[in-house]
Amino acid sequence: MKALVYAGDRKVEISNVELAFDENKDVLVDVLRTGICGTDVGAVAHGRPKLPPGVVLGHEFVGRRNDTGALVVGNPIVSCRSCSVCQSGMTHLCAKRQVLGVHRQGAFAPRVAVPAGNLVEVEHLTHAQAALVDPLATALHAWRLVRRTCQRVAVIGAGAIGLCSVAVLKAAEVSEIYASDVVPERREFAQRLGATAVGVSPEGEFDAVIDAVGTEETRRIAVSILRPGGVAVLVGLHAAEVVLAAGPLIGGERTIQGSFAYTEAEFIEASRMASMLDTSWVREIAFGAAADTLNAMVTGQLGAGNIKVHVCIGE
Fold first, then answer.
1. What is the pLDDT of residues 96-149, one digit of tens each?
2. Do residues 134 and 55 make contact, with C-beta atoms less than 8 angstroms apart?
3. What are the residue boundaries of the Alcohol dehydrogenase-like N-terminal domain, all occurrences included (predicted)?
4. Staple partner for 206: which of 82, 140, 154, 195, CB 3.0–4.6 Å?
């Protein structure tokens, strides 16, 4: 079958591949559409995470089970389910985890093989909403890690995870939601999804800050605008390191919290919540344009107004 694969040398291409399938564990899913994630772009551009040449990319997908026809989304994190971390419910942090589109064949292809336990039925969702369950679950997990009552929360970056964070905060009835982004169109979409204020840079102090960008600058900003006792949740992965002043953290008892992906329960919860999403910020392209589009993202040639691109494969 034809699939979008990592070709090496910071490029992707459409290539013929054999479908990897374990009939004792996997279910075949006929893919309808798959979203291009910032992780896909970062992996191709910077090798984080490192991709083996020839791997089929794509983990934000919706499709139909080949055996039953049910509309499903797939949790792309395949864990061992037997280690102490998995047994504690944190399967997303399993040291042996494999991720579709990184360690296993992904969903930029007509079919993908997924363990049966990773599939969730989503007949109540549109295809666009269903393919956003992954970033919505990521946003939900970040908010859950705040672990305190908040009235004023800032979201730095109005990309897919930032916009989903705004939607999660609105659903949680946070009274003041400030969304910052340098791109005007992204700020407009943040307001549509529930932001009560928007701007290029957050102003004032906040109970919590969700950094959905992850550069050195945005991480410093996230910590600098926390009120005493506040928490900054770091979701974005752009920068490998950041240097922060310890004084304000210690003297103000401010907390820095890392956030990675989501638990299995949060993925299921996000699949139920996704019907609330306005998807007007999603751009749809044909499968034949996928390689050129992702390569343009890697080289920075695609405009920042392209918040989320969905590749339509079997629709």
1. 999 999 999 999 999 999 999 999 999 999 999 999 999 999 999 999 999 888
2. no
3. 24-122
4. 154
The reply to whether 222 falls in a domain is yes
Any domain includes 205: yes
| Assigned domain for 139 exists | no
Assess whether 199 and 241 both reside in one domain.
Answer: yes
Range of the structural domain that residue 10 is part of: 2-133+262-312
pTM over 0.90: yes
Residues 6+ apart with CB under 8 A from 235: 138, 139, 142, 161, 165, 210, 211, 212, 214, 259
Q: Which of 239, 258, 277 is the last residue of a domain?
A: 258
Number of structural domains in the chain: 2
Q: Are residues 73 and 18 in the same domain?
A: yes
**Alpha carbons 109 and 303: distance in angstroms, whole number:** 25
